[in-house]
Design a protein that fits this description.
With 65 residues, the protein is mainly α. Helices cover 52% and strands 0% of the residues. It is globular and about 40 Å long. The mean pLDDT is 86.
């Protein structure tokens, strides 16, 4: 069994592909993840900081390059 890995999705991205990659990892709609980031962004700005860190830390999917 192959391990499931978290990657940024460059084919279905709005900014950096973080939300789309998280949605692929958890098998949910990317819109729900994007809405969650927006809500976190309005709650003290923690969503924006988390998104920036995630875009740096999460690698791009090598199959999509």
């Amino acid at each position: 069994m192959e391990r499931k890995r978290l990657y940024r999705n460059v084919n279905d991205k709005m900014l950096c592909g973080v939300c789309s990659g998280l949605a692929d990892y958890f098998n949910i709609d990317p819109t729900l993840v994007r809405l969650a980031w927006v809500v976190l962004g309005f709650m003290g700005g923690s969503g924006l900081l988390a998104y920036i860190i995630a875009s740096i830390v999460i690698p791009v999917n090598p199959d999509q390059q």
